[in-house]
Batch of 2 targets.
Target 1
Amino acid sequence: MQYTIPHYYNKFHCVAGACSDTCCAGWFIMIDDRSRRRYRTQKGEFGERLRRSIDWKNNSFKQYNRRCAFLNKDNLCDMYVEAGPEMLCKTCRDYPRHTEEYEGAREISLSLSCEEAARLILGTREKVRFLTKEDDREESYEYFDFLLYTKLMDSRDVLFSFLQNRSISCSLRMAMALGLTHDIQRRIRKDRLYKVDELLKRYAGEGAEKAIGAKLADRRITGPARFEKMLSWFGIFQKLEVLNADWPRYIGTLKKLLFDEGAAVYEDNRISFYRYLIEDEERKKQWELWSEQLLVYFVFTYYCGAVYDGQPYAKMKLAVVSTLLIQEMAQAVFKMREGRLDFSEFVHLSHRFSREVEHSDQNLNALDRIFCTDSRFGLDSILSLL
Ligand code: SF4
């Protein structure tokens, strides 16, 4: 078995009681079958408490004031304190580690939804590297499309090289990544997977950057057209399952700040925001860096999952659209803070987005469907907003 992690992975430390937005509040913690069986038969007073604190029908811990029944007033887990880490269910043991499974391979990332992990991901200045190690464990799936998986792995390496190319703007990096996956998708549809290698070579060639740069300049929109399009993109949040009870209020406030005063005010704020970024070289660099780390994070986590549904283009759209929506949310915070945005605010809003969007299969599936069918997220439409 091959295991892959991003190079910053082992630097993560949970800050437990000092956490600004603990993972033990706000959402339901689902209990795996093995832990459930153990909890049912636990003896003594602690066993009694366990059984009282579980919603057996929903397979989750009960909540009081939206906090896990085991989360004490110091924001520490009573189960951990009283019975040790081995008593934790799989969700609590693993989080914020996230594992994607492929035949003979595991890819483990840290989830952006943990604010401490988000700080690590977005605060990484160097290009993310991926470390692998292997053990003797073997497995074989009943059905696994190894040819597609190989093409996805190869194309993901090319995507990383685009997304980490710091000699060009992040907008152009995103456009190249979208263009490549759009063309890969076409080859998958036409059953011409064997042509992917040739495509990768073409995109890695000198002319690609120039051609896509010209396309991008041609499509880009500003003013009322951009306002309308971005407003309609924000509509996708209404199609998603709400995981945290205060999310509608949070995203509603940002949406109001951005759009309620109309297209001219939206555009003024956008221009002020980009002026604020470019007037300071370090700030501008940092903004590009945050975007790069978000894109690499989303692509590492989700792109190869296309081996199960044959939709790599939708996975790339997930990375780009999520990054653009987070950037818009940052513009709203910039307005709220009367013309400034710092690292901790960017970390906070990125983790809020992730907490809401990434931790529901229902939401990820809904986004997949939207990106495959909704013309608001067609290639030209996304390019126009880059
Ligand atoms: S959100 Fe992250 S840092 Fe906070 S308690 Fe959970 S794992 Fe620890």
Target 2
Amino acid sequence: MTGGWLEGDAALITGGGSGIGRAVAERFLAEGASVTILGRDKKRLDEVVRDAADPSRIHAVVADVRDSGSLHLAVAEAVDRFGKLDTLVANAGVWDYQRQLTRLSGQELNTAFDEIFAVNVKGYVLAAEAAWRELVKTRGSIVMTLSNASFYVNGGGPLYTASKHACLGLMRELAYELAPKVRVNGVACGGMNTDLRGPQGLGLADRSISASFAKQGPDTPPPPIPLHDSSTDPRDFTGPYVLLASRAQSGPITGHAINVDGGIGVRGFAGAAGGDHL
Ligand SMILES: NC(=O)c1ccc[n+]([C@@H]2O[C@H](COP(=O)([O-])OP(=O)(O)OC[C@H]3O[C@@H](n4cnc5c(N)ncnc54)[C@H](O)[C@@H]3O)[C@@H](O)[C@H]2O)c1
């Protein structure tokens, strides 16, 4: 294709086998980029490659984001395949199913903290470390998947919320440290119908957030956010990733998070949305 916002760019996306990572991979391809998707599950990655309209512009690498060596190999493989790296999308993550402090034992907290922070926070730092040298060469950028839980409470329990607040701090720190060569920004997504899993340490590795969406029926109350009827399809959250990855569209933007959460920050006291009667 021609005329896409990411024409000729090359991106590496962690957690690209499902959910928002897959949606971003497909959107980047549609915008003219080449994409390397990285994840733990080979079957899923293969599926994304198989479904791509132009398989010559997509490559898959099986790796765990907690392993620095594998991330370095993935960056090398991405550059070998597509000649350079313009964008790293740090995205792979796990949720804590809003498990509150009072519902967790000390032992559970101990195990789940290590697992959630290892994937959600260490996974982002290690990916940034593996990629920055290539990103400096292209004056590229990093886009991190953040969350409503990077700003507000109750999008997770204490572990997830703390991990996503940490990612916001990481995004800002790296924006400072890598400037002026590499821009670093975030997309703070709200609830999306994906396959987001929980930590193994809490026995939640096989539970998917999609089950909560499947349970919703016509009598389910809408989420208490201003845009309470907005889409939860991850494909509808990909625009800000394209914007932030595009040098032409966001060249002067760094250290910034775009909140894509239906307006949580402007919800009212009496009712979430002020215009329901309109
Ligand atoms: N779904 C939501 O409501 C929501 C809301 C806000 C933010 N997020 C964030 O979006 C990001 C993507 O999650 P998603 O909702 O698309 O879920 P998802 O489970 O569909 O996608 C996450 C992907 O990361 C992979 N992954 C997990 N741990 C990994 C590891 N250690 N190494 C390599 N790959 C690993 C998974 O296999 C999966 O393919 C996460 O950072 C999550 O916190 C999700």
